Amino acid sequence: MDVLYGLFIAPFADFAFMQRALIGSLMLSLGACPVGVFLMLRRMSLSGDAMAHAILPGAAAGFLLYGLEILPMTIGGLIAGIIVALGAGAVSRFTIQREDASMAAFYLISLAIGVLMVSIRGSSVDLMHVLFGTVLALNNEALALIGGIVAVTLISLTIFWRALVAECLDPLFLRSVSRLGSPVHFIFLGLVVLNLVGGFQALGTLLSVGLMMLPAAAARFWTARVEPMCVLAVVIGFASCIAGLLLSYHASLPSGPAIILSAGVVYFASILFGTRGILRARIIHHRHRTA
Amino acid sequence: MINACLTFRDLTLGYNSHPAIHHLDGTIRKGSLTAVVGANGSGKSTLMKGIVGVLKPMAGAVIRAPGVRAAYLPQQSELDRSFPARVVDLVSLGLWPRRGLLGRYTREDRDSVSRALMAVGLGGFEKRPIDTLSGGQLQRTLFARVLLQDADLILLDEPFNAVDSKTVGDLIALIKRWHGEERTIMVVVHDLDLVRQNFPETLLLARQPVAWGETRETLKPENLLRARRFHEAWEENAPWCEPGEHDHGHDHDHHDPAHAHDHDHHHGAGPRAA
């Protein structure tokens, strides 16, 4: 028992920074994973990645003006992300260009500006902070911010659930019965930006999208309905955070990559063993029913 | 005009400034059952989109009688069949006009979903994932959704595509039931025999209405011939249609709309429509 306690409980029981890291990353999973499920179902998985890059100039602007402070960097990131999301979304909604192309254009411009701004001032160590985050250094301010973001995310998802599902499943139908189609799309993009910004203090701009997409992608292999998929994604997110933090503690690895790699392990396991995964489809489905 | 469900006023709909529906005037009576026929590219689907409001008019207007709710079954659905949803989830979208964004689905709602599925011959399909349906089954599922919408104006764009003949019979029966309930129905159909047997009124389109009225009159050989001469392609440099050049309301009486709509003589130049 002592061994188990030492392995799994003690790191969190003994160290306040580990507790904070745990609370922060669990809260992040609660908001980001359901958003990731919808990103995946809308075939926008890579848009999340693009958005994560797009946040950089905003965060960099905050960093240039105020140094390594969470609030200005977060607000900057939020503004940059929303400009890119709205811009790309508007171009795809009101012109013939599809969202993937407009998103690519906007995020590349944004990323270039961001790198330019970081390189004007600051050493590469600072850049590493912005890019990779530090989940082990979450302060109360950051935790409160993440808490707020999670609350906003869950409330919005609850309110707009039906419209969001309809917009994914049959957008033309939604347009024929309601004017909510476009607003819901933009609200959703807003939630994506919000959760990426919430994650970047903990995981960095580049990896925060990992906690959003990997659990969602893994959950897809286990269920054919949206509601259980979201719940499962959150559970996978939780498990990845706990496993990643313990791994990082015991093996002295950087926490962000450890969390994302844990989610990656779950993803590969799901591909193989999921109820809709490779093995089930190849082996068990050789048998068939009469009707 | 008291019991008009839809009124078209000099309606022009199209894409990239090329009209697909050109200066359409006329009315759809409340409780009427109209077949919309015409060649490919003659503007049938475009008209439907214009009525629903997913395509904004380039000129003119579609005026819906106050309080009329429309249900629309598109020809090319933007349905994402890989989305993890069951038949019941898809059909339940039809409860939107009644329950909106936040209204709870009641037991009664769930019963009406089952009844709608039963009516299109898909009883017991509730739990099936939509990616396992055949093309015809999916079409019937969408029909069930239209049924559930309980709309006064029902627009069906080629609803019989990929549907077997027995089911076409079932769906026609359903349409006739709606007709009996005084709903207004417009259906885009290609099968003229089907139209002659089942639809009292017909609108024959070729960018502008070739004929519009009682089915037997509309589908006379000379009208069909005229519709067939319709030139489908856009003229890249067709002259601009100037508002002052024709006098609406006289030429576009919808029972004799064969107005040639030729502007070339005003301009004296430019390629002629074939």
Describe it for me?
Chain A: It is a multi-pass membrane protein. Chain A: It is found in: Cell membrane; Membrane. The complex is a heterodimer of chains A (291) and B (274). Chain A has 291 residues and is mainly alpha-helical. Chain A has a single domain (1-286), classed as ABC transporter involved in vitamin B12 uptake, BtuC (Orthogonal Bundle), CATH 1.10.3470. Chain A is built from 13 helices and no strands. Chain B has helices spanning 44-52, 87-92, 96-99, 107-119, 135-149, 165-180, 192-198, 215-218, 221-228, 264-267, and strands at 4-15, 18-29, 33-38, 59-64, 70-73, 153-157, 184-188, 201-206, 208-214. Chain B is built from ten helices and nine strands. The two termini of chain B are 37 Å apart. In chain B, helix 6 links the parallel strand 6 and strand 7. Chain B is α/β, with parallel strands linked by helices. Chain B is globular, with a radius of gyration of 20 Å. In chain B, helix 4 packs across helix 5 (135-149). Chain B has one domain (4-233): P-loop containing nucleotide triphosphate hydrolases (Rossmann fold), CATH 3.40.50.300. In chain B, the strands form two sheets. A six-stranded mixed sheet of chain B has the order 5-6-7-3-8-9, with helices on both faces. In chain B, strands 2-1-4 form a three-stranded antiparallel sheet, with helices on one face.
What is this structure's SSE topology?
The complex is a heterodimer of chains A (291) and B (274).
Chain A: H1 2-14, H2 16-41, H3 45-54, H4 56-66, H5 70-94, H6 99-120, H7 124-132, H8 140-169, H9 171-177, H10 181-219, H11 226-251, H12 255-273, H13 278-283
Helix pairs in contact in A: 1-2, 2-8, 2-10, 2-11, 3-6, 3-10, 4-5, 4-6, 5-6, 5-10, 7-10, 8-9, 8-10, 10-11, 10-12, 11-12
Chain B: E1 4-15, E2 18-29, E3 33-38, H1 44-52, E4 59-64, E5 70-73, H2 87-92, H3 96-99, H4 107-119, H5 135-149, E6 153-157, H6 165-180, E7 184-188, H7 192-198, E8 201-206, E9 208-214, H8 215-218, H9 221-228, H10 264-267
Parallel strand pairs in B: 3-7, 3-8, 5-6, 6-7
Antiparallel strand pairs in B: 1-2, 1-4, 8-9
Helix pairs in contact in B: 4-5
